[in-house]
Amino acid sequence: MVTEKQFKLLRFMLIHKEKTFTQRQLAEKLDLSLGTVNALVKKLKEEKWIDEEHHLTELGQKVLDPYRVENAIIMAAGMSSRFAPLSYEIPKGLLQVKGERLIEREIRQLQEAGIEDITVIVGYLQEKMFYLAEKFGVKIVVNNDYYKYNNCSSLMLVKDQLSNTYICSSDNYFVENPFEQYIYRGYYSTIFAEGQTDEYCAIEDSNHTITDIKIGGENSWAMVGHVYFDRAFSEKFKEILETEFQHEPYREQLWEDYYCRHVKELLLEARHYSSDIVKEFDSLDELRQFDERYLINADSAIIDNICKTLKCVASDIVNIKPLKDGLTNTSFSFDCIGKKYVYRHPGRGTENYIDRASEAVSMEIAAKLEIDRTFVAMNKYEGWKISEFIPNAKQLDYENWDDVTKAMDLLRCLHQSGEKTGHSFDQFEGINDFREKLKARNRFEFDGLEELDETVSILKNYLQNDSKQVVLCHGDSYSPNFLLNEAGEMSLIDWEYSGMGEPAGDLGTFIACSNYTVEDAEKVLEIYLQEVPDKKTKRHYLAYVAVTSYYWFLWALFQESVGKPVGEFLYIWYRYTKQYGQLALDLYREEN
Hints:
The protein is α+β, with helices and mostly antiparallel strands and about 600 residues long. Helices cover about 40% and strands about 20% of the residues. The strands form 6 sheets. The protein has a 7-stranded mixed beta sheet with strand order 5-4-1-6-9-8-10. Strands 12-13-14-16-15 form a 5-stranded antiparallel beta sheet.
C-alpha cells in the first residue's frame, strides 16, 4: 500500500521525469521537511520505485497506475433555472465567460491534464451541445428524463463508466486548471463561504475526510466545483445508486443527497480551493461582477427585448430572480430604473395549443378596461410578455367571499364590455384537439374514460340547444390569475387562453379549480349573475363546469405526457367532470 506522501513524491517525479532534483529541492517543492524527504527517498529506492538519480522506474510507474484518472463525466443536462434569463435561451454551459464557453474551457483543461475519455451528459436544449463531439472528440449521452428527475438520473446513464472518474458540472469556471492525471483519493472541491450560504457544506476531520454534510451554513467550506470518485467510492456509490434510484422519490434528488445519506461509508476528502480559482455563477448579477462585458451586452434576446420595451440599457436590468414556474411558462422578476417587473418566457411546446396573437389583443383590451393593471407589453409572434410586478401580491382566496365578489365583478365587466377580437376559445374544439394529441401518445385509454367522454358528448348536445352568448372570455379564470395589490385592488392576469366564447366557460373554470361544494358553486353563480338563476340558467352553467373540468382534465393529461406533472388538479377535474356532469344531466332530463 502506497502512503499519501510516497504517492506525492512518485507523482512529482513522473511529472518532472526529465529533470533531476536534490532532496532539499524536493522538500521545497513538495512542502515537506527535509527529514521526511530523506526517509521517503530511502524507502522508494529500497522498493526499486526510483533509481539512484531520483528518476521513476518502470516498477514505480506500475505503482502509480491504480491512481491514474480514467475518465471524466460532465453534467450538462439541466436547465439551470436560477440563471434566468440567459439559461432560457442556451444551456448554461455554453455561456461565454472572458471570451470562452464554460464547457469548452472545462474540456480543454481536462484534455490538457491528460484526460481524453470525456462524456458529456446533455438534456435541455441538447441539440446545441452536439457539436462538442466533433470539435473535442467527447462522447455525448442524452438524458431524456432531465426535466423529470434530478442529476442522479444522469449518473444512472453512465454508472458503468464510474471508476477513477471526475464528475464535473458544465457551468463551473476554473481560473487555473484544477485537473490532474494521478490522484491519491477521492475528493469534493470546496471553497470557503464567508457569512451565510445555502450550499451543501462539508464537515471534516483532521485528515480532511468529510464526515458529515449540512445544507446551508455560516463561515463554512461550501461544496462547490468538481468532484473526483476513486474506484472504492465508485463501486460503493454505484450499488447505492442502483438500489435507491428504483424508488420514485429518490429520482428527484441530487446525487449529493445519496452521498449525504451514506457519507460514513462513501469516503471523500474535502479539498480546499480559493474562491478566486473555482467559480460558480448563480445569477447574471454574479457573472457581471466577474465579466464586465455582460454589463453592456448579455448576448441575450430576452435582455434585448426588455431594453427595447423599457428604453433602457442592459446594465439597468438588475436583481433578476426566477419565479416559481407556472404550469406552462417560466418567468422572472427584475428591477429596472427604480421599478420592478416580471418577464414571462413562453414554455416550450405551448405554441401547439396557445394562440399568442389572441392573447396579445386580449391583454390590450384588459389593460384598457383596467381589468389587468399590470400589463406593459407583449410580442404576439414570440409570446414573451412584460408586466409590472405587484409587491406583496395576494392570490384570490376561494374561501374569502369578498375576493370572490371582486373576481366576479371583473369577469362580468369583461363579458359585458362589448369588446370583440378575431379569435375564439371553444372548449369543445380544445377537447377534440387534446383528444387527438393524447391518442397519438397512447394516453387516451383508461377505465372510466368512456363514461367521461359520453357525459360531455351528451352535454354538448343539450348546450347546443340553449340560447348562446359569444363574448370576450378570459379562458383561465382561476385563483392564481386573480391578484390583489396592497390596496386591495384586483387584477386578472395571464390571458393565454382568451378569446370569443361562452361566458359560462369562465365560471366553469373558476369553479373547476376550487374545492367548492355544489352549494358554494351555486353561490358563485348568484354573485356573478346578481340574482338567483332559474333552472335553465343553472343547468347551463353547471354543464359548463363539467365541460370545462373535462377540458382541463385532458389538458393535464397532455402536460403529464410531456413530463410536466400537474398534481392534485388532475383528480379534481376528473371528479368534477363526473359530479357536475351528472347534476346538469339530471336538470336537463327533468324537463324532458
